[in-house]
Write a structure and sequence with these properties.
There is one protein chain. This protein is of the alpha/beta class and about 270 residues long. It contains 9 helices and 9 strands. It has a 7-stranded mixed sheet with strand order 3-2-1-4-7-5-8, sandwiched between helices. Strands 6-9 form a two-stranded parallel sheet. The longest helix has 20 residues. The chain is globular, with a radius of gyration of 18 Å. About 0% of the residues have low confidence.
Length: about 270
């Protein structure tokens, strides 16, 4: 079906908001997630766009994006060869040009109505707005095991040492001033699960406060995270971030990746 005249008008102007979706083997969940996100963004009264970052998928993830039907919300593909969700988000954010940007997970576990709240706060002058499942106003459907819940509690405690005052660094729903996001992404060196911690800590380093908002969040099936397999690597990753943030930056090393400890990071 050809784009509507309204779609032509919207896509002829630069987007005011671009949203990045990191994706690794998401052929099952990506079509539905893209439909939801594009439908939400098409109702917003300004141009928007979506970037899907294919992170070395071995399924049809990239083909789904290449063959996506044109519409009022452009969807484009970026390839990222470095394994890890952090690497994919970095590539996506560096590929944006909009005044405001964000990223969310392919499973759309966070209710997309929160985009309205996040964007309103950005327009009011906030530079970092993130969804928080720990916010007292959030509604969370959580089917995780007791072991995983204990692991999440421990992770939040460690992350709190690096990003003071942020109750949930790992919710896959974050929005930023575009200039700040691109500057911070260029400094990001954590490719795996804990990349959010480094990203937020670097935003705070640059003088930006992190504004947490309540979300409606639904636990989606298909998680790749395993406490038994991944906990040790994540703790090491947090240790590297702690050392990196306190080390004197060396110009030649600012954008170099650490060797990946574990490429996990996708929900």
């Amino acid at each position: 079906m050809p784009p509507s005249p309204q779609g032509d008008e919207r896509t002829s102007r630069p987007p005011l908001l671009e949203i990045v979706i990191p994706a690794y083997n998401e052929e099952g969940r990506l079509p539905g997630g893209l439909l939801q996100l594009c439908a939400k963004l098409a109702r917003m009264p300004f141009p928007t766009a979506v970037i899907v970052v294919d992170n070395n998928s071995t399924d049809r993830t990239a083909d789904i994006v290449r063959n996506w039907s044109p519409g009022p919300v452009p969807v484009r593909l970026i390839q990222c060869a470095t394994p890890g969700k952090g690497a994919a988000v970095r590539a996506g954010l560096l590929g944006t040009s909009a005044p405001f940007v964000g990223f969310c997970d392919a499973d759309m576990a966070t209710d997309l109505d929160a985009i309205d709240v996040a964007f309103g706060l950005l327009l009011s002058g906030e530079r970092v707005v993130i969804g928080s499942r720990a916010h007292q106003g959030s509604l969370v459907e959580n089917r995780h095991s007791r072991v995983r819940e204990l692991g999440a509690f421990g992770f939040r405690a460690l992350a709190g040492v690096l990003v003071h005052g942020v109750s949930d660094t790992q919710c896959g729903f974050k929005f930023f001033d575009g200039v700040l996001a691109r500057q911070t992404a260029a400094q990001l060196r954590t490719p795996g699960f804990a990349f959010d911690v480094e990203f937020l800590a670097r935003c705070v380093e640059q003088g930006s406060e992190v504004q947490e908002i309540p979300v409606r969040w639904h636990d989606m099936p298909g998680s790749r995270f395993s406490p038994a397999r991944h906990t040790f690597g994540i703790v090491l990753e947090l240790g590297r971030i702690w050392l990196r943030l306190r080390a004197q930056p060396r110009p030649a090393a600012r954008t170099a990746w650490e060797p990946p400890l574990d490429p996990v990071g996708y929900p």
